[in-house]
């Protein structure tokens, strides 16, 4: 970190509530990173406009800061509470749509969610991704195609779902190995098929600050039954659905 005497501080305006925004932008604009400069410019502008528009109180400001602290404190290697927060604010899906715009006839993208891991085993067609004896057996027959209906071979498919109790494997403290998740590769006809369990509806983690926020907003914490799929192949757009 540069010492204070080596940083060229720009000339600032006499500080008032009206010019605190351009003052903040001016002192932040010393970075040589043009993208960072632009992002901070827009962030400060919109953040200050929000405070002015809502007449944000000191108590509300402090409540928000403590909420962010609690969000960080409950996060871990297998629980990313900030992703959960981003999801309920609609930001995750918005960013995904901005970065991965979909042409007509293609599958819309969805969010990664907080429970994806990188330790799923690779399995062959017809193998099982579940170790849950309580789940209703399911055979999933799938084909990956382009927008013209042509099969796409060699696609890496990352698949994950909850167990029959509505929990992902990483939510169990006694987890020893991955379950209800796998990685597959499509064959020459773009096909992949696997055994799993019929997905069930489940609540998002609501024992933390995001769950308390949902309660304050009058929203429920339940998600419809679903299976996650993530498709990757060099030269093709990344898709989560």
UniProtKB/TrEMBL annotation:
<dbReference type="Pfam" id="PF04444">
    <property type="entry name" value="Dioxygenase_N"/>
</dbReference>
<dbReference type="InterPro" id="IPR015889">
    <property type="entry name" value="Intradiol_dOase_core"/>
</dbReference>
<dbReference type="GO" id="GO:0018576">
    <property type="term" value="F:catechol 1,2-dioxygenase activity"/>
</dbReference>
<keyword id="KW-0408">Iron</keyword>
<dbReference type="InterPro" id="IPR007535">
    <property type="entry name" value="Catechol_dOase_N"/>
</dbReference>
<comment type="similarity">
    <text>Belongs to the intradiol ring-cleavage dioxygenase family.</text>
</comment>
<dbReference type="Pfam" id="PF00775">
    <property type="entry name" value="Dioxygenase_C"/>
</dbReference>
<dbReference type="GO" id="GO:0008199">
    <property type="term" value="F:ferric iron binding"/>
</dbReference>
<dbReference type="InterPro" id="IPR050770">
    <property type="entry name" value="Intradiol_RC_Dioxygenase"/>
</dbReference>
<dbReference type="GO" id="GO:0009712">
    <property type="term" value="P:catechol-containing compound metabolic process"/>
</dbReference>
<keyword id="KW-0479">Metal-binding</keyword>
<keyword id="KW-0560">Oxidoreductase</keyword>
<dbReference type="InterPro" id="IPR000627">
    <property type="entry name" value="Intradiol_dOase_C"/>
</dbReference>
<keyword id="KW-0223">Dioxygenase</keyword>
<feature type="domain" description="Catechol dioxygenase N-terminal">
    <location>
        <begin position="33"/>
        <end position="106"/>
    </location>
</feature>
<feature type="domain" description="Intradiol ring-cleavage dioxygenases">
    <location>
        <begin position="113"/>
        <end position="241"/>
    </location>
</feature>
<protein>
    <submittedName>
        <fullName>Intradiol ring-cleavage dioxygenase</fullName>
    </submittedName>
</protein>
């Amino acid at each position: 970190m540069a010492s204070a005497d080596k940083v060229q501080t720009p000339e600032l305006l006499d500080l008032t509530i009206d010019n605190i925004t351009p003052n903040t932008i001016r002192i932040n604009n010393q970075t040589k990173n043009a993208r960072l400069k632009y992002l901070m410019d827009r962030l400060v502008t919109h953040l200050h406009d929000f405070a002015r528009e809502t007449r944000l109180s000191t108590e509300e400001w402090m409540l928000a800061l403590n909420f962010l602290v609690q969000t960080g404190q409950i996060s871990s290697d297998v629980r990313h509470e900030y992703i959960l927060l981003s999801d309920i604010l609609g930001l995750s899906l918005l960013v995904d749509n901005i970065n991965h715009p979909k042409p007509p006839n293609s599958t819309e993208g969805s969010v990664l969610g907080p429970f994806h891991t990188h330790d799923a085993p690779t399995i062959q067609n017809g193998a099982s991704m579940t170790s849950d004896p309580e789940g209703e057996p399911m055979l999933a027959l799938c084909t990956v195609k382009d927008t013209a209906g042509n099969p796409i071979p060699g696609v890496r498919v990352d698949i994950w779902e909850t167990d029959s109790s509505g929990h992902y494997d990483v939510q169990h403290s006694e987890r020893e190995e991955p379950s209800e998740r796998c990685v597959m590769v499509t064959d020459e006809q773009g096909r992949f098929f696997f055994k799993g369990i019929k997905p069930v509806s489940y609540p998002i983690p609501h024992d933390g600050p995001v769950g308390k926020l949902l309660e304050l907003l009058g929203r429920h914490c339940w998600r419809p039954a679903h299976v996650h799929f993530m498709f990757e192949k060099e030269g093709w757009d990344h898709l989560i659905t």
